[in-house]
Every structure is written in C-alpha cells, then in structure tokens.
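PROTEIN DATA CARD
Card holder: DNA-(apurinic or apyrimidinic site) lyase
Chain length: 268
Origin: Streptomyces endophyticus
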Amino acid sequence: MPEGDTVAQAAKRLHSALAGQVLTRSDLRVPRYATADLTGRAVVDVTPRGKHLLTRIEGGLTLHSHLRMDGSWKVYAPGERWRGGPSHQIRAILGTETRTAVGYRLPVLELLRTTEEFKAVGHLGPDLLGPDWDPDTARRNVLGEPARPLGEALLDQRNLAGIGNIYKSELCFLLRVTPWLPVGELPAEAADRLPLLAKKLLEANRDRPARVTTGRPRPDERLYVYGRSHRPCLRCRTPIRTADQGDGSRERPTYWCPHCQQGPAPTA
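Structure generated from the sequence above:
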C-alpha cells in the first residue's frame, strides 16, 4: 500500500497537471457515477490527506480516491500512449486540453460535496504531511491502547495518517523496539521521539524518486530493515528477520533486527 509520501507525490503531479484547468473529458467508470459529467468545470486543487487523494472541482465537488495496494494515477500529454495498465483497469479519466489524468485500479472512488469531505477523511488522525499535523495528539493516539502492539498502532490511520508498512518497520528499527512491543511498554524517550521522527522521514522522502531512511543512496542500503529478510543488519550485521503482523484487517510482512530491537517477536 502506498505510504503518505507516495500519495503526496501523486497529488503534486495531479495538481500540477489539472489545477486551474477546465475539464474537457470526464469519465468515472464505477456504476454509481457512470453518468456523472464533470466537463466544463475547472479543477480547483488536488490535496493529499494521509493516504487519500481529494481532487476538488469547481461547483463544490470533490473526487475522493484511495490507491490501497495497486491503485495509481498517471498523467499523460496529448497523443502520449497510456501505459498504466489495460483499459479494463481504468476507473477514472480527467482530461484537459493539455493533460489527461488516468486512474488505474482505484478501489475507492467517490464523488462528494466538498463540504462533506469529512465523510471520507474525517476519521483520520493528524496528517504527517498536512497542515493539521499535531505531534502531541498523534502521540496520545498511538499510546491510547497500552496493550496494542506498536506496529498495529502505527498503521492505524485514526492515530496518525500517512504511515504504511515500510515506515512502520523502519520507525520501529530507529526506535530500537520490535513492532510487537505493547505501546504501554514503549520507553518514554522513544514515545516522545516517535511523532517527530515519523514526520521527518516522510518529509525527507516526499520529493524523492526512491525512498531512503538510512541516508545511504545505494539501492541495497536505502532502508534499514524493510525488504531485507536474511540480509545482514546495516548496524550490527545480524540477519534481518521477517514475520507477518496484523493491522486489524490483514497480515503484512514485517521486518526487524533481533539484536538491535528490543521487545517481543514471533519465535518461528
């Protein structure tokens, strides 16, 4: 699933292509909105909210989309070949005289009144890359259920919005605790560092083509633990381990160093 920095990049591309332009083509390929016609309306802006995209359109409308695991928005110039996937995977087309934005495999696509955006994103916690960011609220939210594993609390977008499975693993490594540590056992210093460290990581990667958490540009050293199963830890050379961890809806591969990170972990 895309992380908050990836969604922010997508919003920036869409905003650059569409904002201030009048739509000359509109095609929402979901049954509920199949007859909706947005042509003749100008795009006001495209704003990210956590992992959600809000495309605001003249007349008080917002097209809300969520990429989840496989969704994407691609922007094409006139005459450019569309390469985002087969046509049956297209869920939305928003075109102007100079650019066309095409949404592929979008699991969430809905047209809302802009005044009712809260119905789509009102449940989210403080956005790590948004104007509503509040580290104190984010900290309280994450620590709100003392028995909950830290990894699950970080993925819960109601606590703070924008962290996905990659940053979950990387943050836990940087805090030197396992993702299975109950948040009530998180050392006070680590709890205080967590919100600001999370924001720092996402902000550092918001404009990067390749995500880096280590400060090392080499492709095999950009991340501390994520995707490095059985490879040596960049700090201590202990083999990185992996196991599934749930987030309340599905199991996700989770990575950690058994030497550098303290706390409970699967034994298998």
